[in-house]
């Protein structure tokens, strides 16, 4: 019986979730809930218990019906029902419990603090049929009861607090809760015992997980926390939603406007196309540039149109005599084929100045048919080849005017390098014609007979280098803002936009004289049908094409405040907000934050203006901030922090920027320091590696660097006279020896090195001078002189030799001792030990003596069972051994014995 | 002064031979060789002489001396010095090959 969960428990298990859910619902709905009048509740109560009472006889049935009841209630609407629900649940639970327990305990005992609300139900419960009670179940039941009582309390509390609006003080509420959950005596509820700081036992109520969850949810709900943002979350959310709503509605209205406008606007042509210069004279670009290109293209007339160019070819220009060489000067000479010296023109400059327009216009003006190849075309070698061949060798058939072709390579800086190489070869006439044509024209290589114009933004792209060398490079100057503004006003007049010259000038300046973007902005304003003022221009975001600023430009902007030109003629500093936005956008569009920050860091101390200390300190704080963030970003790959980096630049700008122009240098200290640190670390490692193990065992890298080496460098440079070793006093000799021994210990030495000027000097190796001698400390003159270094170096070598010898001598003595010990019993060995160790060259090979003992030992043999096999020692063997043991031995002499013969008189033998 | 050389009384019974070694005889104790055992001389079945000194084994060959030597014994009798010929050495055994070591087992 006890193995199975009680019906009550089962119920709890099964429907705990629902209970919770209902509680939650109750809480959520509390705001909207219509407060039920007490009498109404009672009436409801009367309704429901009838149902439960009827079914409380059988627990299982009851449970089932409860579920259905829940479901039914779920479908009903809001507050009243939910309340009814929970109450009903509680009553039902109540009944069950009471079935079990009512005999032993009075209702008051059980539910002492529980309300009068349920009195009616309790009365009914008393009348409910009773079930058996079992003692084993008693404890479990008690727990359950407590849980329920507590739940009920909670319910009551939240209910009272939130729906009726009698807001009890949260502190008192907390106290009350504490009373329920914490006690100093052993409580009746399940608990965990802990000790407080006074070592008293405290019993803390052990709650079920569900309860905890409930509780935490309730706390979150109740706590009207003021968040980090300073506003209530709900409030912020509401505001945000309002904003979104507003925006969407505005957009809708705007969209409607635009649609209407577009319908009215009949020609859908872009203004850039519409107001394209139709004639050469309409060109906006710099007049001299236009003229130069036109003159160049006219030089082709001789080859292309077979007529002499109108420009005087040999024109002794007075400008030739000028001292400076003007790059833009066009060489008007023609080569042997009648072509101009430069076969190709390279136009370069920032976008939107009208380079392409100019190229087209000039070519058409000179009577050519323009063939444009730009970035949108295929620019592989093959397509280049076909395009070039087609354009230069064929007449255009379709064009009825039969104009010759002029090729315009637009955006050539994006073309692949091989294609550009091919183009260069083609221009130089090095290209061998391919295919069948090669057979016909083998002897005459095709020469370029048509002008080629190349256009690029950045002339210093590596791929363009070969082309740049052979071409006539024209740097496209900026269109003057005044001219552009005039044109814009003209366009506005035609489009019937109300505006003024000032606004147009501002627009031109803002767009960096980019005609294309100016026109698109105007077009956009046109759709709004509003007069354009200066403020409108400042507000707009101009889409800029290919805008990227160099590092130095950014640094310049960091350190300089741009003066804003006023309409009245004066200039004023831009507002802080504008400056901030300018810097933010500048830094945001540039990727390499670190480099920029380094540049700022290294350049600010060299500024001409004086910055007050407070600003500097503030800025330095932000450098720290920047550093910390960078570290965080790069160590944890947390790139969300990236967004905060930009603000440091704003602070720096505010701290350092002045109206003066500053000379800015490229930051190198960071890199140098890094390189130096690497070098120094390597030196320390080298010192550590070279040390003798005895010294090494007392050294580690950091203490060595910080403590030992600075002292060692002093220790090893004692005051020694720069004289010969023989003239040294005893004391000096001792100090020299000491230096040598220390340096040998640390594996330091002086090494002769040749200086760039040819002189020699002795440097420490590893060069710890680099590590510990600083320029400022002026230690240099205390270091030993050249001759002393030489002396020390020699002494170190000698010291090393001595050590090595001592080491090897010790070794040999030790080994000989070992040998002696081993062969103590043998007579010869004793002799050997008596004799002093012979030097190597005097030693002779000696016959090995066989010790009898070892032979005898080896002879003891055992059979499989471990018994000693007695093998009779062979007597002949013994005699042989005796023979072998003889004192006399024979030393063979190689060679011929009859080499020298000498007569010996008999008397000499006497 | 006449030197009297006369044959030994009991005739030339013993046969002597030289032993010629290409090398030195040495003593471990570096004492004189007097009365010391030097080595064994054997003859194989084919007649080649074998000499064992210490742990060296040598193979030699017997050759006839170009000039025979006489082994004399000095006898002093009353101031008269006479020499007795003990024997005439006609052969020598020469060991000039590199000795082979005998490895003790």
From TrEMBL, chain A:
<dbReference type="Pfam" id="PF00004">
    <property type="entry name" value="AAA"/>
</dbReference>
<keyword id="KW-0131">Cell cycle</keyword>
<keyword id="KW-0067">ATP-binding</keyword>
<feature type="region of interest" description="Disordered">
    <location>
        <begin position="804"/>
        <end position="843"/>
    </location>
</feature>
<keyword id="KW-0238">DNA-binding</keyword>
<dbReference type="InterPro" id="IPR003959">
    <property type="entry name" value="ATPase_AAA_core"/>
</dbReference>
<keyword id="KW-0547">Nucleotide-binding</keyword>
<dbReference type="InterPro" id="IPR053016">
    <property type="entry name" value="CTF18-RFC_complex"/>
</dbReference>
<dbReference type="GO" id="GO:0006260">
    <property type="term" value="P:DNA replication"/>
</dbReference>
<dbReference type="GO" id="GO:0016887">
    <property type="term" value="F:ATP hydrolysis activity"/>
</dbReference>
<feature type="domain" description="AAA+ ATPase">
    <location>
        <begin position="341"/>
        <end position="480"/>
    </location>
</feature>
<dbReference type="GO" id="GO:0005524">
    <property type="term" value="F:ATP binding"/>
</dbReference>
<keyword id="KW-0235">DNA replication</keyword>
<feature type="compositionally biased region" description="Polar residues">
    <location>
        <begin position="808"/>
        <end position="818"/>
    </location>
</feature>
<dbReference type="InterPro" id="IPR027417">
    <property type="entry name" value="P-loop_NTPase"/>
</dbReference>
<dbReference type="GO" id="GO:0003677">
    <property type="term" value="F:DNA binding"/>
</dbReference>
<dbReference type="InterPro" id="IPR003593">
    <property type="entry name" value="AAA+_ATPase"/>
</dbReference>
<protein>
    <submittedName>
        <fullName>Chromosome transmission fidelity protein 18 homolog isoform X1</fullName>
    </submittedName>
</protein>
<dbReference type="GO" id="GO:0005634">
    <property type="term" value="C:nucleus"/>
</dbReference>
<feature type="compositionally biased region" description="Basic and acidic residues">
    <location>
        <begin position="821"/>
        <end position="838"/>
    </location>
</feature>
<comment type="similarity">
    <text>Belongs to the activator 1 small subunits family. CTF18 subfamily.</text>
</comment>
<dbReference type="InterPro" id="IPR047854">
    <property type="entry name" value="RFC_lid"/>
</dbReference>
From TrEMBL, chain B:
<keyword id="KW-0539">Nucleus</keyword>
<dbReference type="Pfam" id="PF09696">
    <property type="entry name" value="Ctf8"/>
</dbReference>
<dbReference type="GO" id="GO:0003677">
    <property type="term" value="F:DNA binding"/>
</dbReference>
<keyword id="KW-0131">Cell cycle</keyword>
<dbReference type="GO" id="GO:0007064">
    <property type="term" value="P:mitotic sister chromatid cohesion"/>
</dbReference>
<comment type="similarity">
    <text>Belongs to the CTF8 family.</text>
</comment>
<keyword id="KW-0238">DNA-binding</keyword>
<dbReference type="InterPro" id="IPR018607">
    <property type="entry name" value="Ctf8"/>
</dbReference>
<protein>
    <submittedName>
        <fullName>Chromosome transmission fidelity protein 8 homolog</fullName>
    </submittedName>
</protein>
<keyword id="KW-0235">DNA replication</keyword>
<dbReference type="GO" id="GO:0031390">
    <property type="term" value="C:Ctf18 RFC-like complex"/>
</dbReference>
<dbReference type="GO" id="GO:0006260">
    <property type="term" value="P:DNA replication"/>
</dbReference>
